Amino acid sequence: MTKIIAPSILSADFSKLGDEIRAVEAAGAGWIHLDIMDGHFVPNLTMGPALTKCVRPVTKLPFDAHLMVERPAEFVEAFAKAGVDYISIHCESDNPNETIAAIREYKAKPGIVVNPPTDVKETYQYLDKVDYVLVMTVNPGFSGQKLIESSAAKIDVLKEYREKNNLNYLIQVDGGVNLETIDRVKNADVFVAASAIFGKDDYSKAIADLKSHL
Description:
The protein is about 30% helix and about 20% strand. By secondary structure, the protein is an alpha/beta fold. It has one domain: Aldolase class I (TIM Barrel).
């Protein structure tokens, strides 16, 4: 399975966001990751569907939106219509099954997210219904945190569960992924990286260096 690097534009320069997205696409990114925060589910506020729609035309790469919001079902239609291809919601949110069904209804691919304090087994009931599972290896809400080792172990559990149950979901990891930590999470399939890419002068080298560990 091809490993995918998904730069998180939360760490990009928003004054030239279109150029930043074009640059990471040219540098070898596979997806573009959008951190969507409402200031309630997590203590931060980021972008919405309007900004997403504005930058959608600048790349053909899949957009992957992680909804860190209290009522994700209310946002699905807007982000799907803005051109998001993958939408992930938290297993800790309200009515995940209904939201997963809504994501499919709007022709996007659903994902389920597990936070560091939550037992990975909480995701099992959704894994036959989603296209991917996102393992948070930091507590969501802010970029630049250090990877939590106990959360990284969930990736191995999910890989074993996938094989044992003949399932096909991708495993995505987000949080503290950089050259020092990527070896610990390399059983994932999709790697969200923020400052490890946008904090470097050479995006091509940054992405190539991450891939060299996979």
